[in-house]
Amino acid sequence: KNIAVLAGDGIGPEIMASAIRVLKAGTKSVSTEFEYVEYPFGGAGIDAAGDPLPDETIQACQEADAILLGAIGGPKWDQAPKRPEQGLLQLRKALNLYANIRPITVPDSLLPLSPIKEAIVKGTDFVVVRELTSGIYFGEPRSLTDEEAYDTNRYQVHEIERIVRKAFEIAQGRQKRLVSVDKANVLATSKLWRKTVERIAKEYPDVTVEHQYVDAAAMLIVQKPTTFDVIVTENLFGDILSDEASVLPGTLGVLPSASHSESGVSLYEPIHGSAPDIAGKNVANPVSMILSATLMLRQSFNMDDVADQIEEACYAVLNEGTVTRDLGGTAMTSEFTDAVIEKLS
Amino acid sequence: KNIAVLAGDGIGPEIMASAIRVLKAGTKSVSTEFEYVEYPFGGAGIDAAGDPLPDETIQACQEADAILLGAIGGPKWDQAPKRPEQGLLQLRKALNLYANIRPITVPDSLLPLSPIKEAIVKGTDFVVVRELTSGIYFGEPRSLTDEEAYDTNRYQVHEIERIVRKAFEIAQGRQKRLVSVDKANVLATSKLWRKTVERIAKEYPDVTVEHQYVDAAAMLIVQKPTTFDVIVTENLFGDILSDEASVLPGTLGVLPSASHSESGVSLYEPIHGSAPDIAGKNVANPVSMILSATLMLRQSFNMDDVADQIEEACYAVLNEGTVTRDLGGTAMTSEFTDAVIEKLS
Ligand SMILES: CC(C)[C@H](C(=O)O)[C@@H](O)C(=O)O
Ligand SMILES: CC(C)[C@H](C(=O)O)[C@@H](O)C(=O)O
Q1: Do B207 and B172 touch, CB atoms closer than 8 A?
Q2: Are residues B241 and B271 in the same domain?
Q3: Looking at residue B159, what is its pLDDT?
Q4: How many residue pairs from chains A and B have C-beta atoms closer than 8 A?
Q5: Which of A104, A134, A148, A210 to mutate to test the interface with B (most CBs of B within 10 A)?
Q6: Residue B79 has pLDDT above 90, yes or no
Q7: How would residue A202 be classed by pLDDT, with cut points 50, 70 and 90?
Q8: C-beta A9 within 6 A of ligand 1
Q9: Residue B286 shares a structural domain with residue B153
């Protein structure tokens, strides 16, 4: 299996190194062979090749069996003509990674860290399914002058259908409760979204569907996070709501994500940013990257056993208190990684 | 002073009746005379005149010295050809109510109700300044077919300038810290927004300015709500973030808002909805409507003394434990109102 490794910027390279060490240890005794090849991306792409998404990188991603991405961006490239984020958007579009899956869980051991009261947040376990290749992120026309600017939020019905089907399928494998988030009292795109959800719902009679306005959903994620099972929404709302939801566990350092295309390759990355302030200090929490790697094992390679083992090892080390700074501990990135690998063997 | 009273739907009429009784008691001994005239609006407008914003209502609002609005909407009108919400958007646009001001405070007495841990939320006191008459809510063109839908997010620079100036002025009267929220890494409108904020910031050198992406702001509102003083943002982001922030006090029943036009009339309303499930039961919390009325006294009529008295009476009653159901008490809407009026005399 060829894995394209885009370590990126900031803490990206550190947490990627940790995840690959864990992957190698975890897959040592399986028959499948993994090859990990690094490619420049984001700020690192600008530095190496003058472009956040160099040709070589996009080509390698297209040919890979899966992609691991660390994190990108940083003040160094804020004034670049093409910023690291542009590379990320371009990569999503080029690979047609339309389905971004962000599981939000709050393990009991993290309850003390959550900003939310324990009685409210305990047991939180839901998935945000975000449309990732359309909407206002990519809609044309757009324009920017000194006098006026505009963006276009555009959705074709087939773009809504495929992400909604994906969400229904995920819901079928869980608690079978889907919340579709829109702003159908204001937006034309949301009206089409809601109509499409209602039509497709008939194909999944075992799943219950509820519609929420995005402003109401933004409230409920904080007020009643345990009521959600699967949330499906369009690109911009998904950006905002999944980031909001990511604060529930009290640290971003534990949340992975997966992005799937219709037929081809998938990309796995933490949902947090590149944290330039703590980069290169060996203090970043690699759990989000390690769990992104286990999502890869499950969703791209059907290797649930190895994924289970790695996750169990991770949680065991966390429960023993060998935790990084963001979790209130003193373990360095490499120490935590060593401990996980030791547990695995 | 002519006050146009739009009680609206659901709990609107009950909380409006309460606020007007309190207003009358509070202004009994001042020389200014207030006249309160009710007009149909929202679902009530559809029922009375076949339109959520009847001509008579819009005309009365244009001629009034201030407008009090209860709440609108409900399942009864969900299938109406023109829904109650359309009337609200049309009213905002017709009166040019471009500046929506939503103060978010968490009084110590509400800390037990907040979903957020006390150590994090204690002392929260900020204002969301939301642009209310432009952006994707009103941008043209927009289209909806079976195959595709689109909306246009459009901002003219003068629309950004006036709301940003308003926010700077509000910040000058507070802690002088302004956070401008955008998505400038993706949207053309946000790039113009950020550029405009930076230009106007030079006119207000005493105010410090920080830019945040909307996804980051959605996180920080929960993680570090006490770090905010004034937030300024565009229409859709303001909708989502101000609703998210409204959960901090643990009940929506205490949060007022004001919407200002460039020269003319202002509108005052609670930020919550019409709560059809508890309508007509005399259990709704009228504090949000009473505080909206005190905002009117302050911002439209410079009657800070009366406003202070009413607010003090409200908080005194709250602290004595005469509170409605949403606050964990047993007081009926009318009992709470009686208690406030008694305190005033
Ligand atoms: C970096 C940015 C363009 C990106 C987005 O808005 O999609 C990020 O916030 C994310 O959620 O992956
Ligand atoms: C009812 C709806 C159109 C409205 C809005 O989105 O502006 C409401 O949510 C609000 O915030 O006042």
Answers
A1: yes
A2: no
A3: 98
A4: 150
A5: A148
A6: no
A7: very high
A8: no
A9: no
Cβ of A192 and B143 within 8 Å?
A: no
Q: What is the DSSP string of B310-345?
A: HHHHHHHHHHTT---GGGT----HHHHHHHHHHHH-
Average pLDDT estimate for A22-41: 96
Answer yes or no: is pLDDT of A169 > 90.
yes
Tell me the per-residue pLDDT of A227-249, one tens digit each, with 9 for 90 and over.
Answer: 999 999 999 999 999 999 999 99
- Is B274 flagged in the annotation as binding? yes
Q: Which residue has the tokens 């369009």?
A: A234
* Ligand 2 atom closest to Cα of residue B100: 12
The arithmetic mean of pLDDT across residues A101-130, rounded, is 96
Mean pLDDT value of segment A312-333:
93
Residues whose CB is less than 8 angstroms from the CB of residue A69 and which lie 6 or more positions away in sequence, other chains included? A6, A8, A12, A41, A267, A268, A269
- What's residue A264's pLDDT? 84
**What pLDDT was estimated at residue B252?**
86
Together in a domain, A268 and A235: no
The partner residues of B143 in beta bridges, in order of sequence, read: B150
What confidence category does residue A297 fall into, taking pLDDT thresholds of 50, 70 and 90?
very high
CATH number of the domain to which A93 belongs = 3.40.718.10
Given pLDDT bands bounded at 50, 70 and 90, which one contains residue B297?
very high
A115 closest CB neighbour out of B183, B215, B223: B223
Collect all residues of chain A within an 8 Å Cβ-Cβ radius of residue B151: 152-153, 187-189
Same domain, B299 and B317: yes
**Smallest CA separation from ligand 1 atom 11, residue:** A239
Residue-range definition of the domain harbouring residue B126: 103-260
Same domain as A328, residue A190: no
Number of domains observed in the structure of chain B: 2
Last residue of a domain, one of A224, A253, A282: A253
CB distance A88 to ligand 1 below 6 Å: yes
Closest Cβ opposite residue B151 in set A137, A146, A153: A153
Chain B interface test: which of A186, A239, A272, A326 (most B C-beta within 10 Å)? A186
Shared domain check, A66 and A45: yes
Task: Judge whether residue A69 has pLDDT over 90.
Answer: yes
Considering A220, A253, A286, which residue would you say is the last residue of a domain? A253
Are the C-beta atoms of B137 and A126 separated by less than 8 Å? no
Q: Which three-class secondary structure state does DSSP give residue A213?
A: strand
- Annotated catalytic sites of B, by residue? 137, 183, 215, 239, 243
Confidence at residue B274, expressed as pLDDT on a 0 to 100 scale? 94
| Ligand 2 atom at shortest distance from the alpha carbon of A213 | 9
Mean pLDDT of A260-286: 94
Q: Which residues contact A306 (CB under 8 A, 6 or more apart)?
A: A26, A27, A30, A294, A297
d(CA B117, CA A118): 9
Ligand 2 pocket: which residues have CB below 6 Å?
A 185-186, 215; B 85, 88-89, 239
Query: Which chain B positions have a beta carbon within 8 Å of A215's beta carbon?
Result: 239-240, 243-244
Q: Are A29 and A345 in contact (CB under 8 A)?
A: no
Mean pLDDT of B332-341: 97
Average pLDDT, chain A: 96
**Burial class of residue B82 (count of CB atoms within 10 Å of its CB; 0-12, 13-18, 19+):** middle
pLDDT of residue A71: 97
In this structure, the answer to whether residues B111 and B233 fall within a common structural domain is yes
Do both A124 and A8 map to the same domain?
Answer: no
Active site residue A215: yes
For atom 11 of ligand 2, the residue with the nearest CA is B239
Give the other-Cβ count within 10 Å of B107's Cβ: 13
- CA A230 to each of CA A163, A195, A247: distance values in angstroms, whole numbers, following the listed order: 12, 18, 17
Please answer yes or no on whether B151 and A214 come within 8 Å at the CB atom. no
In the predicted model, is pLDDT for residue B263 greater than 90? Answer: no
